[in-house]
Structure formats: C-alpha cells, structure tokens
C-alpha cells in the first residue's frame, strides 16, 4: 500500500517524506504493519458463527505448528465500506486472551488488525469435546474410556480454576468450546463472552441479558439471578461431565426465544428438564432460592417423573412408573448409576476396555457437587480439583488420550472458502445469546 | 493474567524506566526532525495536563465513570509513546481512547454518541471527524497497544486498603484526588498501581484536611501535600531505614521488581504488619486529637511499609514527581497549550 501523500503547504518548508507511523489519525488511512496473507497460508475453512469465521492455517514465515485464525466480521452486516467500531465481545476477547496464559486455555499467538477486520490467531487444536462425544455415539455406540473422562475433567477444571483465580468468568462453557489437541491436552476456547468479574462497574447482568447456551445454563441464571459468580461456569462443567458419561446433553431443553420487546422469558422448558432429574429445588437446600426474581415460576413446574431419564428406555429393562412424585427428590444418583452401568453388558466397550463402572461412587459425588442447586454450595474449580475422584482409582494423565487406541477423526476442514480476506458472510453482531450456529458445519446429529 | 498485575501485560510491556521513556520519545522526534522543528509543542508536562483535561471534559459530558476515564488516559499515554503527536489529531485520538475504554470497562457508549459529543465539545478541532474516523482510529490505537487493553488502576488498591489504614472519608477522597491527578503525569507508565495508591495514601495522611473545595482539584492536593512534605519524606526515610534493617542484606526495598513476592497486589489487601487491636484503639481515640491521630497513622503507615516488600524507593520518586507536578501545574497555561496543539493540526490538515 502506498504511503506517499501530498505534502500540505506547511510541510513544504522541510523535506516531505512518508511517515511510517502515519496510519489512522492523519489524512491517510490505517494500514496494518503485519498482513495476514504474508504471515499465514490458509489451508481451509473450519466453522462460522455470528462473530465471523474460523480458518485453519500454516505459518509462512517459519512459525511452527498449525493455527486457527478467527476472523471477526465488523460489527455490522454486509460489505464494509466504513469502520463502525469493534464489538464489545471482540474487545473483551482480545483483551483477555492477551493476558491469559495457561496450558488448559487456548493460546493466542497474535492479533492482526487489517482491512477493517480483526484476525485473532490461536494455536490449533485438532479436536473438541463435541466432536469426541459425537464420535462415541456412532454405531456401535460406545462410552468414552473412563481414564479419558477423568483426564478431560481434571484439565477442564484446571483451566477453570486458572480463569477464576484471575477473575475471569467464561460464561459459555459447552462441549463445542472445549478444545483438545492431538496430544490430548484440553484447552478452554472461545472467550468471546468471558468477562472480568472483580468489582464490575455494573452488575454483570446489565451488559448481556442472557449468557451460556441454554443446556448448560445454571439454575440461578434460569431463575433470573443478577449477581452471578464463577459457580455458573461450574454448573456448565457438571453438565459437560454428565454429557461425557452419557454422550447426551443431560438437560436438553428448548429455548424460549426473546419476545419482540426483548424481554427475557422464563426458560420453563429448560428448568423443567433440570427438575426432571434433580428434583425441585427447595429453600432448605438453597436458602436464597426465594429471593430469585423468577422464583414464582417454580411452582408451575412439574415435580420429576420417577423415571428420571426416560429417554434411556431402549437400553433398559427397568420400567419405572411414569408417575409424578410429590416429593420432588433428586434422581441424579439413579441417573448416574444407570449411565455408568448401561454399557456393562451387551454392546458395551470392546473386550478389555475399562468400563465406566470404574468411576465408581466418587464420580457420582463429583457430579452431584457440580450440579448443586445452591451456587454457594456448588463445588468451586479449586475444590473440585481436590476431589477424591481424582486421587482414587486410575491416575490422572495429562494426556487424555493416553492408553487408548481410538483414532478420533480430524477436524473437518472445508475447501469451499479459502480466501480469508475476501470471503463475506452475513455476519451479525453477537447478541449475547450464543447459539449452536457456532458449530454449524459439524452440527449435532439428531439423536435416536 | 487478567487480574494479576504481576503477570499482566501492563507490568511486562508498559512499565518503563524514565530513561526508556525518554529514549522512546527521542526516537519519535528523530524520525522527522523537520516536523518537530516546524511545530514546537508546549512542554510535555503541559501537554499531559491538557490531554488529561480534554478526556475528563468528554467523560463528564458522557457521564462516564472515573475508572473508564482513567483507562482512556492510560491508552492515550501509551499511544503517544509509539506515535509522534504531530502526526495525529489528538482530539480524535482522545475520543477514540474514551470509546475503547468504555467498552473495556463494561460501560459501553455508542460510537455515534461519543462522536457527537466530541463534535460539540471541540467544534473546530473535531469538525471533519465522524464515526468511521473514530472506528479507524480504534484500529490504530489497539494496534499500537498490541491489544493490551486491560489496565490495572490504583483506585482498587486504595479501596482495598482504606480499612487497613483506617482512612477517614476526607483522607480517602484526598488520596482519590491524588490518583486522579497522577494521570496528568508520566507516573502511570513508570510505576505499578499499588505504588501510586500508597503514595496517594501517604499524601492524604500528611496533608492538613483541605478546607477548600473537597472536589479536590490538583491545587488543593498540592497545597496540602507541600505542607506535609517533610512528614512524608520522614515517613519514607523511616520506612526505608527499617526495611533495610529487616532485610539484612536481602533485596531491601526492591519488592516492586520481584515478581515472586507479590506482597501487595490489588486484590490482596491483607498484608499484615500490625495488630488489629492497635488499629481499633486508634479508631477509638477522641476525634479532637485529630493531629496526633494523623501523625499516629503516618507512623503506622511507615511501619507497615517497612514490614512489607513495597518498593519504598519507587514511592520516594513517585512523591517527588507528584510534588514537582503540582509546582509545574501552577505555571500551566491552558490557552497557550491549546493554541500550540491546534496550530500543527490546522497547518497539517489533521
């Protein structure tokens, strides 16, 4: 790009020259010092979402390894002629990723601001939990090895503890956002919704009205809590643990959409899914329950069916009475043991493979500690890491693939769109309501 | 790390020595001596004051919180260590810094609103700017800051420590004003936020309660500070002597540069050094013994410093910088400064 410019009258008094730093605030436009296409060779397109697109790339200037380049569309639809300001979520992600450094959080390599677009270059991870879970649902359906689950959970919690001790809430933990490298290292990714929570200027509620993909949303959020805490991430971690065990989202509710007035509706269906397994929350176990803004809606929910996980009935001979119980007690324990036992016989793990039964009672205790209704009683990341689940039984490996023969399929990289600079898609501003369109190319298979 | 100063990009990339800072600025001027000669600028101190006031004016128009204004101040300072002022429209840069700081501090303002307010505030200087210029300048600003956007401010340390030092409301607000004032200097680029906060607390402790405007302009603090200067110096000297004895050949007062010993980070306010019972007896003292009580607090503060790993040398320097700033502030002339800034802008059509 040419940097020559017409000297203005006042400059004639001295030798006019080009200004290397004259980018942006002078009469000349901003140009990046570094150009994406000089630094990286894009080898394919990975995924797209509301924020923009992700590409896989190699370094062109001797950088080792592979990279995932996240390209943010400018904060407006259509072709960009003018700068319109960077979205707050991109600002957050840029700021936080620049500060964070931990083996279980995806590593930022560099940020390039070029041609009205933001390119965030991350280390590449071959897998993610959504893809790993999906692989195990393929026929014959077979559970994830217990040692893998244990390692994934430990690394995931380790990353969470790091984020939380640094006052960062992730706010959008779900299998698609948990990356796994080919050497079995778990990396928490997508900090687009993450925020600092140390003495925020406003209540965390005031910014983005709704956070966390509905299936992983903590009950206090569903009940309208305004002052939430790291405990919301821990609920999501509990849901992910359950999903690693059963290969299905444990609370797979349907999202009630925002109405035209942009008021957030009570997520009745999602709350009901939680109640179906966990029972109705009580103020005895959760003292602040009655102070929740949406508390009144709870009375309209059905107490759980005694058959907590009726969707498993194909594999089970148990015939629970489909009868509403008045007690509203938790079925989580039953859910857990049914889950870890269900593959013990028949089309279970390959001969010689360890059964989920080896996770034993400690697995249940960890799960119930994470899926605790009361956010104050819910396990913190630090406490969960100290849980006997990790100190008993098989040793925790830093490589979640250690000792397993499964070759997980590599991330699908399409060649449809290899031009990182020109590709245009209807990018819209991230509304604070993340959805699964973030993983569109590898959409969750319809179950059953 | 995001909320850990010791691991932060601020400590690793944006804390300079005075010599480094001077060399960076010299390099910028050397890039184009002709430009520098054609457009003389006011002394840097005066420019700093001027830019600070412009950000505060814009911030007040927008009703933005102090924390966001402070972050904008630091953004502007960082930017101008990388880019020669005469190549920019400072009003555009300051507006952009405010726009970005508001997003970062979670109190976003619409780009159109900020641009509009800037145009009303600086009708001639900002007349040919629009939202797309602000958006473009945002790229420039972020790029020059290497996307290091999280700023650790001294306000948090002050808030965390006010109970520990039994600061009364006047002392807190005086310390708060000193922190506000330090954004008119290079101090945010020179010292960690806790050093600034502790220096501000010391200023507050040695000052007579300001009779005048408790709004706490620089002048109030200045008058107060110079009156208590000898006390401050004495307290710091005492702290230095005691910490030298305590250290016994160790790293002495160099705590600030030892990342392994974060004795006082913004979020850990509990650094010990005195018993809680002493403090409560102070609190119980008769209010009429105020001067005595104040000196007691200073002594206690000095003792606390000596027992901590705080870099007292840095505090001494920080104190001197502030004193000389307050002196220099007297000679500041807003009109001259503005005219000189606007001259190069107009001549260069920025």
UniProtKB/TrEMBL annotation, chain A:
Residues 308-321 have a biased composition (Basic residues). It is found in: Nucleus. It catalyses: [DNA-directed RNA polymerase] + ATP = phospho-[DNA-directed RNA polymerase] + ADP + H(+); L-threonyl-[protein] + ATP = O-phospho-L-threonyl-[protein] + ADP + H(+); L-seryl-[protein] + ATP = O-phospho-L-seryl-[protein] + ADP + H(+). Residues 1-26, 303-325, 412-448 are annotated as: Disordered. Keywords: Activator, ATP-binding, Kinase, Magnesium, Metal-binding, Nucleotide-binding, Nucleus, Repressor, Serine/threonine-protein kinase, Transcription, Transcription regulation, Transferase. This is Serine/threonine-protein kinase SSN3. Residues 40-390 form the Protein kinase domain. Its cofactor is Mg(2+). It is an enzyme of class 2 (transferase). InterPro entries: CDK (IPR050108), Kinase-like_dom_sf (IPR011009), Prot_kinase_dom (IPR000719), Ser/Thr_kinase_AS (IPR008271). Its EC number is 2.7.11.22, 2.7.11.23. GO terms for molecular function: ATP binding; cyclin-dependent protein serine/threonine kinase activity; metal ion binding; RNA polymerase II CTD heptapeptide repeat kinase activity. Belongs to the protein kinase superfamily. CMGC Ser/Thr protein kinase family. CDC2/CDKX subfamily. The keyword Nucleus applies. It comes from the Eukaryota. GO terms for cellular component: mediator complex. PANTHER family: CELL DIVISION PROTEIN KINASE, CYCLIN-DEPENDENT KINASE 8-RELATED.
Automatic annotation (TrEMBL), chain B:
Keywords: Cyclin. The keyword Transcription regulation does not apply. GO terms for biological process: regulation of transcription by RNA polymerase II. The keyword Glycoprotein does not apply. Residues 53-143 form the Cyclin-like domain. It comes from the Eukaryota. Residues 247-275 are annotated as: Disordered. Residues 260-271 have a biased composition (Polar residues). One of its GO terms (molecular function) is cyclin-dependent protein serine/threonine kinase regulator activity. Pfam families: Cyclin_N. Residues 247-258 have a biased composition (Gly residues). Belongs to the cyclin family. Cyclin C subfamily. This is RNA polymerase II holoenzyme cyclin-like subunit. It comes from Bombardia bombarda.
């Amino acid at each position: 790009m040419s940097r020559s410019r017409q000297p203005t009258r006042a400059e004639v008094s001295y030798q006019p020259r080009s200004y290397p730093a004259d980018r942006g605030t002078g009469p000349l436009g901003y140009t990046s010092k570094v150009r994406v296409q000089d630094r990286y060779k894009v080898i394919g397109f990975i995924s797209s979402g509301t924020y923009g697109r992700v590409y896989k790339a190699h370094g062109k200037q001797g950088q080792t390894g592979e990279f995932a380049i996240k390209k943010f569309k400018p904060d407006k639809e259509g072709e960009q002629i003018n700068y319109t300001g960077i979205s707050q979520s991109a600002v957050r992600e840029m700021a936080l990723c620049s500060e964070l450094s931990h083996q279980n959080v995806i590593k930022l390599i560099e940020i390039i601001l070029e041609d009205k677009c933001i390119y965030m270059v991350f280390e590449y991870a071959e897998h993610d939990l959504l893809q790993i879970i999906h692989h195990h649902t393929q026929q014959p359906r077979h559970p994830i090895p217990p040692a893998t689950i244990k390692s994934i959970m430990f690394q995931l919690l380790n990353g969470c503890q790091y984020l939380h001790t640094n006052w960062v809430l992730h706010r959008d933990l779900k299998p698609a956002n948990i990356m796994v490298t080919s050497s079995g290292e778990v990396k928490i990714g997508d900090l687009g919704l993450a925020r600092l929570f140390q003495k925020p200027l406003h209540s965390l509620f005031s910014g983005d009205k709704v956070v966390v993909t509905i299936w992983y949303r903590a009950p206090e959020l569903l009940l309208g809590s305004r002052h939430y805490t790291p405990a919301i991430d821990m609920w999501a971690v509990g849901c992910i643990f359950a999903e690693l065990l059963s290969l299905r989202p444990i609370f797979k509710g349907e999202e009630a959409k925002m109405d035209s007035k942009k008021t957030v509706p009570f997520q009745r269906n999602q709350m009901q899914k939680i109640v179906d397994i966990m029972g109705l929350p009580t103020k005895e176990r959760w003292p602040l329950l009655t102070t929740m803004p949406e508390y009144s809606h709870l009375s309209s929910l059905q107490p759980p069916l005694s058959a907590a996980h009726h969707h498993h009935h194909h594999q089970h001979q148990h015939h629970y009475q489909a009868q509403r119980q008045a007690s509203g007690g938790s079925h989580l324990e039953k859910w857990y043991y049914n889950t870890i036992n269900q593959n013990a016989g028949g089309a279970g793990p390959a001969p010689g493979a360890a059964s989920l039964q080896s996770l034993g009672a400690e697995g249940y205790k960890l799960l119930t500690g994470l899926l605790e209704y009361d956010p104050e009683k819910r396990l913190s990341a630090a406490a969960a890491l100290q849980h006997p689940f990790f100190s008993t039984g098989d040793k925790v490996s830093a490589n979640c693939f250690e000792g397993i023969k499964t070759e997980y399929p590599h991330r699908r990289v399409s060649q449809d769109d290899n031009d990182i600079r020109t590709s245009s898609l209807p990018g819209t501003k991230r509304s604070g309501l993340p959805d699964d369109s973030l993983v569109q190319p590898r959409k969750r298979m319809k179950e059953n | 790390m995001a909320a850990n100063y010791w691991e932060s990009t601020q400590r690793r990339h944006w804390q300079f020595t005075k010599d480094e800072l001077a060399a960076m600025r010299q390099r910028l001027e050397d890039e184009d001596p002709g430009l520098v000669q054609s457009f003389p600028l006011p002394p840097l101190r005066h420019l700093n004051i001027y830019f600070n006031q412009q950000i505060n004016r814009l911030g007040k128009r927008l009703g933005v919180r102090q924390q966001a204004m402070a972050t904008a101040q630091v953004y502007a300072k960082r930017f101008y260590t990388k880019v020669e002022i005469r190549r920019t429209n400072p009003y555009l840069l300051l507006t952009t810094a405010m726009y970005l700081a508001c997003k970062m501090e979670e109190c976003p303002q619409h780009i159109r609103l900020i641009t509009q307010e800037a145009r009303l505030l600086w009708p001639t200087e900002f007349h040919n700017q629009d939202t797309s210029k602000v958006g473009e300048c945002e790229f420039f600003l972020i790029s020059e800051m290497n996307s290091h956007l999280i700023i650790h401010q001294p306000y948090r340390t002050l808030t965390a420590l006010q109970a520990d030092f039994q600061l009364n409301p006047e002392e807190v607000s005086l310390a708060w004003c000193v922190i506000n004032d330090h954004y008119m200097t290079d101090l945010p680029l020179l010292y960690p936020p806790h050093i600034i906060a502790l220096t501000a607390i010391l200023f507050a402790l040695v000052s007579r309660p300001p009779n005048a405007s408790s709004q706490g302009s620089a002048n109030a603090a200045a008058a107060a500070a110079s009156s208590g200067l000898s006390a401050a110096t004495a307290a710091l000297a005492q702290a230095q002597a005691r910490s030298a004895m305590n250290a016994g050949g160790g790293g002495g007062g160099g705590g600030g540069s030892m990342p392994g010993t974060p004795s006082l980070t913004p979020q850990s306010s509990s650094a010990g050094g005195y018993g809680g019972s002493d403090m409560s007896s102070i609190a119980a003292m008769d209010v009429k013994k105020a001067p005595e009580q104040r000196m007691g607090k200073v002594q206690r503060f000095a003792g606390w410093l000596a027992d901590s790993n705080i870099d007292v040398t840095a505090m001494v320097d920080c104190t001197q910088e502030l004193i000389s700033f307050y002196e220099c502030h007297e000679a500041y002339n807003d009109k001259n400064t503005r005219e000189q800034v606007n001259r190069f802008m107009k001549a260069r059509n920025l």
